[in-house]
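Entry for uridine-5'-diphosphate complex. Fields follow.
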Amino acid sequence: MLNMKISIILGTRPEIVKFSPIIRECVRLGLDFFILHTGQHYSYNMDKVFFEQLKLPNAKYNLDVGSGSHGQQTGKMLVGIEEVLQKESPDVVLVQGDTNTVLAGTLAAAKLGIKVGHVEAGLRSYDRSMPEEVNRVLADHASDYLFAPTPKSREILLHEGIDENKVFLVGNTVVDALHQNLEIAQSKSQIFDTLGVERYQYMLATAHRQENVDDKKKFSGLICGLQKVQREFKIPLIYPIHPRAKKQLDAFGIDSAGITFVEPLDYLAFLQLEGKARLVLTDSGGVQEETCILGVPCITLRNNTERPETVEVGSNVLVGTDPDRILEASKMSLDHKKNWTNPFGDGKTGEKIVEILERKQDINWSQK
Ligand code: UD1
Ligand code: UDP
């Protein structure tokens, strides 16, 4: 029986989704754990709605750091997380993914000598201009348990010199989350009626990456590409717009006629829409994975990806933000066969991670 105390540190929409299977497993086994929310995401539809829908226990602490520059945001988190960790003295801290919350959580814990488990370790875009790439590299190299989702991510970690005893190939909790919620989404979500669209008679887009939406030329190209695709296929193109992207779209005054913008959607509605889309266009990491698992063709509005498995199995194409490339790739993707295999595991990743923590709890890496 696991007798260690676990601190789960999260702060953004994808972390809540991808941590949900691990949190559910901790609850199921009656483990001693608590959630520390940094407050990086705070709008109802980017945060609370996911806790409610996924029926997750409330965070014991919320640091309410909110938005700010990278330094301000990460610095505030570091101070707040350190205080909580000193008070609670957990045996292990879990972080997930590549956000500023992950960087701050890892750093605070590592400096206090608390073991860190990094869920979704070993992803690399090899593009250091992305804040996420810096965060994931630093988190991996300061972690004690590296939960790699695929053989490729495991290999990357070993090539970077990380001790193989610290690396665990477990799959990605995104599969668990999908398996646990897809059926509920199908029975509960009214999103098709709400939006007035028919299954397979629309396309879905999401884009929020800093390097895309904070750059006027790139964001204009991306939007123009979406408009071209909508005009070509003559079916609605629905874009649940992330607050960062909305702010930038307004600030740049980009013409976006023809695109159906909606507020960020709750998870069940989004899953429904994603699963029955003709095509998904995105720069999101999680959406590249989910479309691959759901058998929906994906066009990635970036020139690189830290999820190359999706491209290799044939579910995903990288096109960047050039309008004509977006259109051409979209035309080709619709003809794709959709019988690729899911490279992200069997949907038991949450259980495996908790089981590994249990098995390895007495290991003291510094004495190895
Ligand atoms: C962050 C992550 C990114 C992840 C994304 C998931 C980093 C460096 N980036 O990007 O990797 O893909 O979350 O969605 O950690 N805002 C709101 N309400 C909110 C949250 C944000 O209005 O609840 C607006 C604010 O104007 C804010 C902007 O969105 O300035 C950006 O938020 P921030 O958390 O800094 O980064 P994301 O773009 O959300
Ligand atoms: N998502 C959602 N509603 C939306 C857009 C996305 O529930 O309107 C979910 C999606 O299913 C996935 C996660 O949010 O699980 C992806 O988050 P995001 O794209 O913000 O971050 P990234 O994965 O790029 O870090």
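NOTE: The chain has a mean pLDDT of 96.
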